[in-house]
Amino acid sequence: MTPQLVVFLVLAALAIAGAVNLILQKHPIHSALSLIVVMVALAGLYLLLGAEFVAAVQIIVYGGAIMVLFVFVIMLLNAGVEEHTNISKLAGGPGLLLAVALGAFIAATLARSSESIQAAAQNGALAPTREISSMIFKEFVYPFELTSFLVLVAILGATVLAQREKS
Amino acid sequence: VNSLLSANAGLIIMIVKTVLLLFIVLTVNAYLTWFERKVVAHIQSRWGPHRVGPHGLLQPLADGVKFLFKEDPTPAGVDKFVYHLAPLLALTLALTSIAIIPFGPNPIRLFGHDIYLGIAPPDLNIGILALFAITALGVYGVALAGWSSNSKYPLMGGLRSSAQMISYELALTMSVVGVLLIAGTFNLRDIINAQAGPGVFGWHGIFGWNVWRQILGFFCFFVAAIAETNRAPFDLPEAEQELVAGFNTEYASFKFAMFFIAEYTSMITVSCLCSIMFFGGWLSPFPDSWASTHYLPSAILIPFGLWVIWDGIRYETILGRIVLPGLGTVMVALGAVFVVFPAVNEFIQGPFWLLSKIFAFLFFYVWMRGTLPRFRYDQLMAFGWKLLLPLSIVNVIATSFAILQWGPK
What we know:
The complex is a heterodimer of chains A (167) and B (409). Chain A has helices spanning 3-24, 28-48, 52-77, 89-112, 114-122, 129-139, 141-162. By secondary structure, chain A is mainly alpha-helical. Chain A is globular. In chain B, 68% of the residues lie in helices and 1% in strands. In chain B, strand 1 (108-110) and strand 2 (113-115) form a beta hairpin. In chain B, helix 6 packs antiparallel against helix 9 and helix 12 (296-313) packs antiparallel against helix 13 (318-340). The model of chain B has no long low-confidence stretch (mean pLDDT 84). The chains are: A mainly alpha (167), B mainly alpha (409). Chains A and B meet through helix 2 and helix 3 of A and helix 4, helix 5 and helix 6 of B.
């Protein structure tokens, strides 16, 4: 076993354990903490692939900004332990089927594109920051700007919705 | 054993470096508390700690022992796991961020390996981003400590500090963008080296530093950095008149100390970052041609050491008469070594200047704490969002236009 494989296995186990724990935990804060573990483990996996920039951004944006917001809101609302309900019939029947279907779909896609994934993994320095930025701002500048616009619209919408009604 | 050693040399060097840096940072931390208490005391016309050891120099040791032996009760109704996790998280993240900082330009050659000062590899391409990633996670220690304590004042303190840290993180990150545009890299070493060349008016030395081109960026960065480390005048999370002690009210003994150490360590990190991003890191403020300035470390160490010896001989207590002259002798000897061995003298130039700058910033931190009153909470938020963030964005735009017009220099 190469050291890379060991690190990969540890990080992957951490990510999966965090994801399972996220569902099993009863308190929202504990679930949020598990999600942070998943995010950081994913960043570690990106680092292993040589995508340093993506790894750093993953932690800054997801691990930092977004999850802090989650934790912050949970703290502000003082959300308690969630109430336990019996599993709904919809989730038990069709849900399980859908989960199996999704799993099969992902496995099939992975099996078909395993060569390109391996190539990407062995490429080492996957994408230096300079190349990523020139790609975003030259090749994909229109999709990028459109996405920014979408985000802006969402922010404006949130502001309008959150505004108190003037009497 | 020999083959095992040589096969894992990189790993062993890394472990030794980590342990050494950890030891140094924790010691500096301890003496930073002593330094802060002394400086604030003198600002307020007091003596500060002076009972434990000569000039109170053993006070940090006494404090450490006290922290270790205090009772460590866990309050009723806390979320046990998160309550114990929070101080660990705060301390670990604060200490990890130091690992990114490079402390000197040249490697030492030992046992056939080039050993750089600082833990991160010298070609780390995401240096500053990695630092921001670690600071971004630092909020959790404080926020979770406040929440898990199950008590109203810590909760308020935790909420306040997470709100403050989120708000000022934006300005902190934006204010650095100008420097990154000029240097064209995230690598901390390259950022420092980019400040060596001819700067303002084509002069070398101090005029090459980024602070001249990025005066607005530096202002935003420094203010945001103080807020980010929760220090006065932005220490609202622990405003004792309103919140008892803020997020760490329910913590005692060593868990309390861990928050304390985390705060001081992030002060050190921010001072390092300020020196590296805006004040030329390990570059000397004098032009390279002024060779005599290379003896400055000795010129400071030897007279100061002599003064410490002189002060020690006259000291009241026997311990002082032993410790202080010993300390002074070590300083004089170090200064003499630098004079006698030119190779050693050249090697310590970089670390000397970086440490001097870090020390200057740490002094500034303490000075401000002794001088400025605390902000009000709404003032703090308004200042961050309505002044600091727009200013840093203006700085980014202005820098971009300047680079388009005149190039990065």
